[in-house]
Amino acid sequence: MTFEIEVPQLPGERRIWVYLPERYNATKEAFPVMYMFDGQNIFDKESSYAGEWEVDEYLDTIKADHIIVAIDHGNEERLNELTPYQNPEYGGGEGDLFLEFIITRLKPYIDANFRTITNAEGTNIAGASLGGLMAYYAVIKHQDLFSKAIALSPSFWINPQITELTEKTRIRDSSKFYIVIGADEGELMISAYQPILEVLLNKELTPKQYYMELVEGGHHNEGFWQAQFKQAYQWLFK
Questions:
Q1: What is the pTM of this model?
Q2: Helix or strand or coil: residue 67?
Q3: DSSP state, 31?
């Protein structure tokens, strides 16, 4: 199902896609929620930029228990809403406003209208490219609200300040990260990935808290993210 919701912090409305687990209507249970950026690419080939992730087909196949809430990007607003810091060359930097929309407007709406597990343990977030950057940032910045991040090909390069934020943040034992970069995504992506890897290693997190890999043959595209989402879901939740 889809619906439109206003984003008071940024121009316009956003289309929201909601996936309910197969057994949602057969039980009174509450379910965990995963928020996903770039909703156009998550479920529907027709709305996608270059192919969908097939998240609904995959979750149906494994009979997963997550409610998925996929948030369309704002087209020309995408760079603004999916970067927490302003880049001197490319601009942006309104990621905190977009997270405020999710936290104060979208999440309360979802929690009020669906049977959700509302605490941080039951609230996860995922994305790729700029969406991957924001998913990682959301868990680092709001560990009281989000516990797990799937960050596929995160564009750390556009906001290198994320490394210092990670260094300064005490990461809770409940926080978990799945972070992958394709080896064929270019030096800019890879060089920005390495400092984050080193910081997380220095924090001596447990092996269950983070998975990071430079994937041979991985490119910056939907096909790579579709495959990696499946692996990320298995690692985090199975």
A1: 0.95
A2: strand
A3: B
